[in-house]
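Every protein is a chain of amino acids, and every chain bends into a shape of its own. The fold becomes a row of whole numbers, each drawn from a learned catalogue of backbone shapes. The protein below has been through that process, and both of its lines are reproduced in full.
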Amino acid sequence: MELIKDQISAHFRLSEFACDGQMIITPEFVSFARVLERFRGWYNRPINVNSGYRTVAKNKAVGGVSSSLHLRAMAVDFNLPKEYMEADPARQKVFCHNVVTKWEDECCTAGGFSQICWYDTYVHLGLSWERSYFEDKRRSKSWTM
């Protein structure tokens, strides 16, 4: 069996995190990738990374903040699953609560802090060594945390 050099864990490839063919690999990224892999095992559905590492130019182009964890390859954005999008507000709230709680647990286990931004169609998960936060950036807030 041929080894796939790009495969960094059971569910992720390094190229998924790259930005315009560029990537940084640091000990912090390795920690983040391990946390994300454990989370993915629990999540039990695909996580297709929309945004992982970002160059400074890309971060600026998409309106990212200058302190973005994407600049250090410590965050991912991915679309929310179809079952979330089609669920009623009460089930969406439970889904969000479960995701937030699990991500917080995984980051804490790794010795870090969870950073989460919840959008209408996607979620941002980050691992920080400095602080934890949760932001609800949905345009239509049919439920609150």
